[in-house]
Design a protein that fits this description.
The protein has about 400 residues and is an alpha+beta fold. The chain has three domains: about 5-100 and about 265-290, no CATH class; about 110-250, 3-Layer(aba) Sandwich (YojJ-like (1), CATH 3.40.1700.10; about 295-385, RNA Polymerase Alpha Subunit, Chain A, domain 2 (Beta Complex). It has helices at about 5-10, 15-35, 35-55, 60-80, 85-90, 95-100, 110-125, 155-160, 200-210, 240-250, 260-270, 275-295, 330-335; strands at about 130-135, 145-150, 170-175, 180-185, 215-220, 225-230, 235-240, 295-305, 315, 320-330, 345, 355-360, 370-375, 380-385. A seven-stranded mixed sheet has the order 2-4-3-1-5-6-7, with helices on both faces. It has a four-stranded mixed sheet with strand order 11-8-10-13. Strands 9-14-12 form a three-stranded antiparallel sheet, with no helix packed on it. A hairpin with a 2-residue loop joins strand 3 (about 170-175) and strand 4. The radius of gyration is 35 Å and the shape is elongated.
């Protein structure tokens, strides 16, 4: 097993890109399964994987084979059952979104006051309402139908959108910044069991949306005349506009739109830092386990470098210039190996005049640690060493 210095030695920019890409995939998967039925499936897979590993580690041949065989069937079942969810998670893997990101929305102070006052006015009149405040995650995957509005936020506009018998009464209103983007949007319902019987369609829609993304939902209950805020699948009630405004100011990002790019990217990087660090740790561990331990072989042609040739001698005949070797080691070590850096060095210090036979071994190669020589062709050299012929001097001339 390699020590830490071995991993650092072979860690290159491709390795950084490899780990970051896998960490991003794990992070997106964690957002997808959070609060959904896929979380139960992921937990079941983890349990089966642990049992299979323990069975093989402890020498339970039959149990290890059984649980390992179950994996193919389980993956097929998951693909069939979670086909809509898999389509959604593939749609979320947007490289443009990863590179450019998406600015989290903010609510200016005046807008926040208008919204909080409006929802409590609707609550006093027992008029149901559902207002969505997007954050960083895109909402296009979760919104259905909807009418484009693009209007400035005011209490009058909000009341008009939810006042029966307006056609936008039953849907949700999407607010971004100081404007109302859409109205009459339908949100995904939660599948969580055991919710209170008093929760109606608006409650389940607010919980369902916030289970799948980081948006906030302001909910006005038509039956109870109360105001609640849904966040991460949890509803929290507020008794008055002041408490609601303080809660929103604490939750909603306070970085304005004219924030410098460097500060905004730092905020983007540290957003959900715990989940990102967990995904990065899993990806790094898998990289060490897979790239560092998986053994493979590679063929390589390396040149021969003859050294310490005795003075007054020279090599004659057909002199080999290279050999073909096969190396075994981890993919990590082999991928970092450069053919130009490997030499086969042959010392002719003890070579005698005539034909010399030399067996080639691993000691003639300058291999980095972690690599093993499995084959070498040719396995020996036949080197002919002769004294250099001296040319006769010029003939003396007669005077």
């Amino acid at each position: 097993m390699y020590d830490i210095l071995s991993y650092v030695r072979y860690f290159r920019w491709q390795s950084v890109l490899d780990v970051l890409l896998v960490a991003y995939l794990f992070y997106q998967c964690s957002l997808w399964v959070r609060g959904s039925r896929a979380l139960l499936a992921a937990g079941g897979l983890a349990v089966i994987g642990v049992i299979a590993f323990l069975a093989r580690w402890s020498g339970l041949i039959l149990s290890g084979w059984l649980f390992q065989s179950m994996w193919a069937v389980i993956w097929l079942i998951l693909i069939i059952v979670f086909q809509p969810e898999l389509r959604q998670i593939l749609e979320r893997f947007s490289l443009l979104e990863l590179i450019w990101g998406r600015r989290s929305t903010t609510l200016p102070g005046e807008t926040l006051a208008e919204v909080t006052e409006a929802v409590f006015e609707l609550a006093r009149e027992r008029i149901g309402a559902l207002i969505v405040l997007p954050q960083v995650d895109p909402l296009d995957l979760y919104l259905h139908d909807g009418v484009h509005v693009d209007a400035l936020i005011s209490r009058a506009v909000i009341r008009a959108l939810f006042q029966p018998p307006a056609p936008t009464h039953d849907g949700a209103v999407i607010i971004r910044g100081a404007r109302i983007e859409q109205a009459a949007c339908f949100l995904p319902m939660t599948t969580t069991a055991g919710l209170p019987a008093a929760y109606g369609a608006r409650h389940r829609a607010a919980i369902g949306l916030t289970e799948q993304c980081d948006a906030l939902c302001l909910l006005v209950s038509e039956e109870q005349g109360t105001v609640a805020l849904a966040r991460q699948g949890i509803l929290e009630s507020f008794p008055n506009p002041l408490r609601l405004r303080q809660g929103l100011e604490h939750i909603v990002p306070t970085i304005p739109d004219d924030t410098p790019a460097l500060l905004w990217y730092w905020r983007r990087l540290t957003y959900r830092l715990g989940a990102k660090a967990f995904a990065f740790g899993i990806a790094l561990g898998l990289w060490i386990a897979v790239a560092g331990q998986q053994s493979t072989e590679m063929a390589l042609t390396v040149p021969i470098e003859y050294q310490r040739i005795a003075g007054g001698t020279e090599l004659r005949g057909d002199i080999p210039t290279d050999v073909t070797i096969r190396l075994r080691g981890s993919q990590l070590a082999l991928s970092a190996l450069r053919a130009s850096s490997v030499r086969l060095r042959v010392s002719l210090e003890q070579a005698r005049e005539g034909l010399n036979y030399m067996t080639l071994t691993a000691r003639h190669l300058d291999l980095p640690p972690g690599l093993e020589l499995t084959d070498m062709r040719p396995a020996f050299l036949a080197i002919e060493v002769r004294k250099k012929e001296t040319l006769p001097g010029p003939m003396p001339t007669e005077e």
